[in-house]
């Protein structure tokens, strides 16, 4: 009798352990599933923003084909296509996303953005009109401003640009867009002020620096403004200023600026040297 009790006890303990393990297995599987969802979500975020755009397109296309009803994967595919320069295909994906259960106003913003990149301004305007007016974000107002610009609705564009700039801690891109809008309207002094604000906000934004020089050149201000710039940037900005001067008929000033650009560049500045040679050739031909 005494020798059989341990065996019975072991059997009972084994049964209890198995019962416990059965419940434990379910818990472990649930936990692992949650971890996998978290890991996949992190991977989706990485692929959507940090990965090579072409690789991101392949990743999300495979994933979306396998699970076409998962809106997160469709969003990732849409963003990846736009990042990869395939705006038309991206717009087609976003057109599906905005009709899916769980679609948000931000999805509509992404769709409008993709449409603008395909130059479908009317489509972008129509899409923005579907978004509730209470949804007020930097991206929404920046796109609204660009659409108003395309329709030459200058007052609306200015209002939207101003609102967008006030809704972000990094206003340089929208200030640069707003300045370019002013530049195309011939409002050169206003454009200069906006480009200067953009450069002050983001000193490494070369596009704003280049636009600032163009706005100054349009006012026949043929000196570089005080701002941080590398030697290469200085040469490129002098080149821009030179071309602006030449287009306005100030050829001798443009020639001098081209010479400065060639001298300032740390390496051979082919485009400036070619423009200078063309000027010299024309001068010789006229003499």
UniProtKB/TrEMBL annotation:
- The TPR repeat units are at 172-205
**Segment forming the signal sequence:** 1-21
| InterPro entries (alphabetical) | TPR-like_helical_dom_sf, TPR_rpt
The record's section on SUPFAM superfamilies has: TPR-like
Keywords, A to Z, come to: Signal, TPR repeat
Superkingdom of the source? Answer: Bacteria
Q: What is this protein called?
A: Tetratricopeptide region
Question: What taxonomic ancestry is recorded?
Answer: Bacteria, Pseudomonadati, Pseudomonadota, Alphaproteobacteria, Rhodobacterales
């Amino acid at each position: 009798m005494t020798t059989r009790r341990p065996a019975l006890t072991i059997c009972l303990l084994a049964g209890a352990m198995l019962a416990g393990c059965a419940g434990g297995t379910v818990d472990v599987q649930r936990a692992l599933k949650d971890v996998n969802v978290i890991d996949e979500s992190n991977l989706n975020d990485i692929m959507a923003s940090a990965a090579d755009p072409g690789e991101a397109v392949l990743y999300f296309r495979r994933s979306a084909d396998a699970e076409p009803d998962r809106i997160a994967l469709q969003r990732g595919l849409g963003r990846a296509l736009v990042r990869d320069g395939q705006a038309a295909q991206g717009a087609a994906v976003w057109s599906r996303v905005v009709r899916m259960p769980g679609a948000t106003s931000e999805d509509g913003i992404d769709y409008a953005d993709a449409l603008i990149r395909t130059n479908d301004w009317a489509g972008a305007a129509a899409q923005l009109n579907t978004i509730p007016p209470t949804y007020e974000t930097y991206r929404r107002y920046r796109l609204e401003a660009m659409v108003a610009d395309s329709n030459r609705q200058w007052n609306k564009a200015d209002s939207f640009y101003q609102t967008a700039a006030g809704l972000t801690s990094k206003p340089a891109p929208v200030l640069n867009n707003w300045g370019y809008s002013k530049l195309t309207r011939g409002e050169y002094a206003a454009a200069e002020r906006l480009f200067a604000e953009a450069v002050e906000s983001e000193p490494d934004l070369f596009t704003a620096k280049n636009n600032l020089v163009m706005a100054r050149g349009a006012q026949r201000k043929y000196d570089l403004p005080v701002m941080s710039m590398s030697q290469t940037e200085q040469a490129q900005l002098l080149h821009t200023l030179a071309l602006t001067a030449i287009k306005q008929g100030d050829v001798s000033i443009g020639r001098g600026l081209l010479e400065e650009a060639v001298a300032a560049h740390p390496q051979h500045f082919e485009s400036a040297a070619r423009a200078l040679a063309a000027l010299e050739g024309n001068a010789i031909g006229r003499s």
